[in-house]
């Protein structure tokens, strides 16, 4: 049986790599200096490089189910997402953090469905989106709103990381909430002043996630209330 994957990596080495070798050599000599931490869902249909027109060295990537951010609770454990956030902010000193959810997200849909009981880690992980779920019958509209609410929830949690909070307060870091609509190929960016997600085609910025006292529309009021304590610098 032919190993298609082996053929692909050979093709990369023989045909693609020569065209970008110089770029990679420079990134080795000068080190990586990505300015964006991109936290995206693991969904295979979300392709951060395509979306943002970026390439090698441009994005420091975290991907997980749902594009979730665990709360900063001071415990030191095997928290991969938290570790990568700390590294991106403290070492790489990124100037932007993008949290990117998307349409048709299985992680969000799972909030309304029964999950395989064997997936114990997944069940626990999904709790990071629980507060975004609506007490309604599941529908495409409810899912869309939940996907968007989940993004805002993660932005709020990011502010609970002391290094994120201090960099944002110092004006060195901005937070961007995105909801990518796969079928339209369009990112909707979260606008703090209106509390709404606005299509990039008509937005005046690429997102300005919550990091201060801000007016939220009723959609986000309960999220705001739930996470207010974490917004207070300790
Ligand atoms: Zn997803």
Write the layout of secondary structure elements.
Layout: H1 4-30, E1 36-41, H2 48-52, E2 59-64, H3 80-91, E3 96-102, H4 106-109, H5 120-126, H6 140-158, H7 162-169, E4 174-181, E5 186-191, E6 196-199, H8 218-231
Parallel strand pairs: 1-2, 1-3, 3-4
Antiparallel strand pairs: 4-5, 5-6
Zinc ion is lined by residues 41, 43, 66, 102, 105-107.
What does this protein look like?
By secondary structure, the chain is of the alpha/beta class. It has one domain: Carbonic anhydrase (Beta-carbonic Anhydrase, Chain A). The chain contains 8 helices and 6 strands; from the N terminus they run αβαβαβααααβββα. A 6-stranded mixed β-sheet has the order 2-1-3-4-5-6. Strand 4 and strand 5 form a beta hairpin. The C terminus is likely disordered. Bound molecules: zinc ion. The site of zinc ion has 7 residues, from helix 4.
Tally of discrete structural domains? 1
Q: Strand order, biggest sheet?
A: 2-1-3-4-5-6
Question: N- to C-terminal separation?
Answer: 59 Å
Mean pLDDT: 90
CATH fold name, please? Answer: Beta-carbonic Anhydrase, Chain A
CATH class call? Alpha Beta
| Relative helix content | 40-55%
Protein traits:
alpha/beta, 6-stranded mixed beta sheet, 8 helices, disordered C terminus, binds zinc ion
Brief write-up:
The protein has 234 residues and is of the alpha/beta class.
